[in-house]
Amino acid sequence: xxxxxxxxxxxxxxxxxxxxxxxxxxxxxxxxxxxxxxxxxxxxxxxxxxxxxxxxxxxxxxxxxxxxxxxxxxxxxxxxxxxxxxxxxxxxxxxxxxx
Length: 99
Known about the structure:
The protein is mostly helical. It has helices at about 10-20, 20-25, 35-40, 45-55, 65-85.
């Protein structure tokens, strides 16, 4: 069985749009591809392709929890562990359509 992979190449027009507006992209790195596409007058897929070709990819920002959030998590975990020790509620949990 032969599998064929096709690779989409970046046309000079797409690359040129992003190269000519490099300062626009660098000014606000948190803008989405759709808002950049409106500014540049092209489609968002062209912007995505151009950004990927330059090595600019979406990265997840680290999520910083406040002390209150950490305390709530700990409280919920200790409550559930205490319930599990005392009543074994997890075995009596009804999920779906059980008879």
